[in-house]
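@channel sequence for tomorrow's demo:
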Amino acid sequence: MRLFLSVCIFFSALSLGADVGRFLEPLQIGPKPGKVRYVVKSSALVSPHSPRPQLQEALPASVSVVLDRALIEARLSEALAYRFQASGKVAVFLTREWRNFNSGSNFILKIKDCSPDELTSSSFIRFSIWDQGREIGSFAEPVRMAHYVKVFYSKSPLHRGTRLSSSGLSSRLVDILKQHAGSVPAQSSLAGYQLSANIKANSPLKWNNLSKVTLVRKGQIVDVFASGNGIYVTMKGMALGDGVAGGIVNIKNLSSDREFPAKVLNENSVKVHL
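C-alpha cells (generated this afternoon):
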C-alpha cells in the first residue's frame, strides 16, 4: 500500500512540474510581416482578459508659419505700441522688400533699438526673431509709422476766448504723426482751457490753439487756505499777478504784508502749504 501511494505522489509531482514549467515558458512573439501581434500568456498572476498594450503615436511636429511682410508688420506694431505705451492703434509699414522665411508658430519678435527712439512718421528699427529659445534672425529695417487716435474736432466755428467742453466738440480717428500732429486726444480733459485763436468748423483741435483760463487776476482779493503740521488756517490775501488753474501766483497777506507763493484752486481761492 505504501509503495502504491509513493508512486502516485511521484507522478503527481511530475505532472505539477510540467504545468509550472508551461507557465514559466518565455513569451514567443512572432509578428507576421506588415502586422503587429500581441501574445499574452495566461498565468496565475495575470488575467487572460487583461487589456492589450496601446501603441504610442508620434507627437506631431511644431506648426510652421511663414513670416511674411504682413505678419512682421503686425508684430512690429504690437511691439512698438508696448514699448512706447501708446494709446490708440500703432501701425508699422516696412519700406523695402521683405524676404519671407519659415519659423515655429510661437516665435518672438524683440525690438533692439529705434532711431529716433519715439513714435514718428519714419524710423529705423533693429529687431531680432527668436524661436524655441534661440535667435533665428537679426534685422535692420527703415519703416513708416502711423499712430491712430481719436481727437477732438470742432462742430461749428469757434472764437478766441471760448471756454471749451467736450459736449461742443466731435471726435474722429486720425493719424497724429502726420498732418494731425499736436491734435488734442478725445479723452483729454478740457477743464480750465480756452481758445487762443479762432477755429473753423470741422477742424481738428490742437494744443497750440488752447491756453489756460486766467482764474485769478492781479490785485484780486482771494481766500487763502493754509495747512501743514496739523495746522489749518484761512485768511484773506491779494494776488500780485495773474494765475491759471493749478498755476502758482504770489499772494500778499493783508494783515502782515508778508508775501508767499500759492497754488490757484479756482477763481476765488488759493492754497499754500505751511
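heads up for whoever presents: Residues 3-32, 38-60 have pLDDT under 50 and may be disordered.
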